[in-house]
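Example record

The entry below shows one chain as it appears in the dataset: sequence first, then structure tokens.
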Amino acid sequence: MLGVILCGGNSSRMGNDKGLLLAQEKTWAQSAQEKFRSLPTVLSINSKQEHNYKSIFPKEQLITDDQTLSLAGPLLGILSVHKRYASEDLLILACDLPLIDQEVLETLQKEYRNNGGYEAYVFNVENQTEPLCGIYTHKGLDKILTLYESKNLERYSVMYALEQLQTRYIAAPTTWKSYFKNFNSPTDL
């Protein structure tokens, strides 16, 4: 399994690259990487971010968006990493979920190990799906990529992709709701 930190957004509402925002003297991307512990990790970025991320992370950990994919958003980042590491299942974490606790990732990996046969594993928190902290199997991503390449992927969102897969929706405790707080603008900080 490969850990993937999604950092490739434009951060237009935040005004600054969210993966490079600082909290306790570390960038959000660095803090996310630490949560993966011993799991090998890469960062999904866009080509405009490459210079800034190279000053913090080794070049071999940076996966820029695949220019052959006419997609945008998180699905572009996920499929770009999948094309590079086609045989790996991916543990995805968006960099703008800085409150995710280690227990969340451990629970996710336990569900993956104990409930095989699914193509994706994501949490539901109070009936809301949280697609950017999840596990996407290589078989499931192959299916999404095939749908895309055959022009049969009707919408280019991660939520729509999950609907095409055999997805295990994991009910998260209500006490975990704050872990999934997404930070999109300075007023969210």
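Notes for this example: The longest strand covers residues 128-136. The radius of gyration is 16 Å.
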